[in-house]
Write a structure and sequence with these properties.
Length: 177
């Protein structure tokens, strides 16, 4: 059990604000495609794509990216659930993940996206930025920045997998002897 940073209502409002920010920065949804990092970045990405579609009345497609083949620690080429059924070349790709920490996942994701073509630009949207970067990658859009210790854990729960929406900060247990 940890501290609830965002409940379902907070998450809904935060994603609504992020959808508006993305549309404002890109002057609408023309040429935008959304790609969510599996697993939990994908449901967040779907919600952003849905919100932007609703706001603009222009369909914003959403794909899912499996970064396992591109990891820098233990690449796994046997599993790849990527589905990007639209053109990436020349598009503005909104890459979405639920948490950014070291940024190694996003580095891998960028490698994965490039396999699908040469986007016009890639912009990064994350629900939670918890700091402690190991690579020079920063989000263009974030839901909430959270001050964490390196050993803490942020848990993003999504309805699709967990039956509820919530963001929880789990502090490392301090054992006093
Ligand atoms: O910036 P980083 O240090 O790479 O950490 C962020 C990643 O960590 C989590 O993935 P995890 O590997 O826990 O898998 P999951 O998405 O299946 O939960 C989260 O989904 C991010 O993708
Ligand atoms: O705290 C963290 C760090 C990486 N990925 C997560 O989902 N949470």
């Amino acid at each position: 059990m940890g501290a609830v940073l965002l409940d379902a209502g907070d998450m809904r409002r935060t994603l609504g604000r992020m959808a508006h920010e993305i549309l404002e920065a890109n002057q609408g949804a023309e040429g935008l495609v959304v790609i969510g990092v599996l697993r939990r970045g994908y449901p967040v990405a779907k919600r952003l794509a849905f919100l932007m579609t609703q706001i603009e009345g222009t369909t914003v497609p959403c794909g899912k990216l499996d970064v396992r083949p591109y990891r820098d620690d233990r690449p796994n080429f046997e599993h790849d659930e990527t589905e990007i059924p639209f053109e990436v070349a020349g598009k503005t790709v909104i890459l979405v993940d639920e948490v950014i920490y070291t940024a190694r996942t996003i580095r891998a994701a960028l490698e994965g996206v490039m396999r699908f073509g040469r986007p016009k630009t890639v912009q990064l949207a994350v629900l939670i930025d918890r700091g402690h970067r190991e690579l020079p990658i920063e989000p263009n859009y974030y839901g909430k920045k959270v001050d964490t210790d390196r050993d803490d854990h942020i848990v993003v729960r999504v309805n699709e997998y967990d039956g509820e929406d919530a963001v929880v900060l789990e502090k490392k247990e301090v054992i006093n002897v």
